């Protein structure tokens, strides 16, 4: 066991049966089977391969952050929490083994791990919070659990080599800018059961050529597909009432859009810079179209 790792553990525990530091900072006497959390607070070593000691149950906030030496990290079974930015900007790490015992992953836990090319998120994890994998430039093999409900804001932002993703059936919300700038994302399977896709979720995904939004989706945010220059076709759910501002703006290859039967409003710049005109689409007489929804201003649709 590397000394640097052991010292980090010892900062949280004086002895195995001695003083254990609680989340609120108070020290308490604890037995070997204590329910208190044993946290790895800091690793500042230079080893290329690091194995977190057995007995640790939490990787603390920024415990490995900005370490430029480590290439591989093995987290043992028994760890249940990976703290906020725990591995942030470990720019040379290529492999992180996440055990099945993990149930909570903090914001930005793996952001900026430039060389991390794959990870399996264990079953039991319900949310990937803000910027969990943001700027993981080599990440292209990601396995998501069937328990996942939320993919948070900017979760996979600028994962620039990710080519394909199947969203699990359990997911209900895709956060703002969740896949912003995933420039090689070609294949995307959205799940039945998905309810909300937030603003700019897929903005600047230039390799995405087709998108089929499931019928369960009730709201798609502003500029969701803006600047997806390779997008050719889009299929929207029948129950969707609003096309929010800038939804397809800059999608210069867009040729076919299947609009919702329930569509009542097309907001500003939805089809700007697409080359499409209002007459190219089947918009109902009752639908209100913003004057600048298309490249050329149009009057409200009443005919």
Topology:
Blueprint: H1 3-10, E1 19-21, E2 27-29, E3 39-40, E4 49-51, E5 58-59, E6 72-74, E7 81-82, E8 95-97, E9 104-105, E10 118-120, E11 127-128, E12 141-143, E13 150-151, E14 164-166, E15 173-174, E16 187-189, E17 196-197, E18 210-212, E19 219-220, E20 233-235, E21 242-243, E22 256-258, E23 265-266, E24 288-289
Parallel strand pairs: 3-5, 4-6, 5-7, 6-8, 7-9, 10-12, 11-13, 13-15, 14-16, 15-17, 17-19, 18-20, 20-22, 21-23, 23-24
Antiparallel strand pairs: 1-2
Task: Give the overall silhouette.
Answer: elongated
Query: Which range does the strand content fall in?
Result: 15-25%
Distance between the termini: 76 Å
How can the largest sheet be summarized? 5 strands, parallel
Task: Give me the strand/helix succession.
Answer: HEEEEEEEEEEEEEEEEEEEEEEEE
Low-confidence stretches: 10-32, 298-303
Helix/strand-derived class? mainly beta
- What is the percent of helical residues? under 10%
Radius of gyration: 23 Å
The side-by-side strand order for the widest beta sheet comes to 11-13-15-17-19
Query: What is the overall number of helices?
Result: 1
- The average pLDDT score comes to 89
Tell how many strands the DSSP assignment holds: 24
């Amino acid at each position: 066991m590397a000394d640097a790792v052991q010292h980090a553990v010892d900062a949280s525990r004086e002895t195995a049966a001695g003083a254990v530091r609680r989340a609120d900072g108070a020290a308490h006497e604890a037995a070997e089977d204590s329910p208190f959390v044993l946290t790895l607070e800091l690793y500042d070593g230079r080893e290329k391969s690091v194995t977190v000691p057995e007995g640790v149950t939490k990787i603390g906030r920024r415990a490995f952050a900005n370490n430029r030496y480590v290439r591989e990290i093995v987290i043992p079974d028994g760890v249940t929490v990976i703290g906020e930015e725990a591995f942030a900007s470990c720019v040379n790490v290529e492999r992180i083994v996440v055990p099945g015992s993990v149930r909570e992953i903090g914001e930005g836990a793996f952001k900026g791990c430039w060389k991390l090319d794959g990870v399996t998120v264990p079953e039991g994890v319900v949310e990937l919070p803000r910027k969990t994998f943001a700027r993981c430039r080599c990440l292209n093999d990601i396995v998501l659990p069937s328990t996942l409900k939320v993919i948070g804001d900017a979760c996979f932002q600028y994962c620039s080599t990710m080519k394909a993703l199947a969203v699990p059936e359990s997911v209900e919300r895709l956060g703002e800018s969740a896949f912003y700038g995933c420039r090689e994302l070609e294949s995307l399977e959205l799940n039945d059961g998905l309810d909300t896709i937030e603003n700019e979720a897929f903005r600047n995904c230039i390799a995405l050529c087709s998108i089929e939004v499931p019928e369960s989706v009730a709201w798609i945010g502003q500029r969701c597909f803006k600047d997806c220059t390779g997008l050719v076709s889009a299929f929207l759910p029948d129950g969707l009432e609003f096309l929010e501002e800038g939804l397809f703006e800059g999608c210069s290859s867009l040729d076919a859009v299947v609009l919702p039967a329930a569509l009542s409003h097309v907001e500003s710049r939805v089809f700007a810079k697409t080359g499409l005109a209002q007459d190219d689409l089947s918009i109902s007489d009752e639908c209100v179209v913003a004057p600048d929804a298309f490249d050329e201003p149009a009057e409200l649709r009443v005919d």
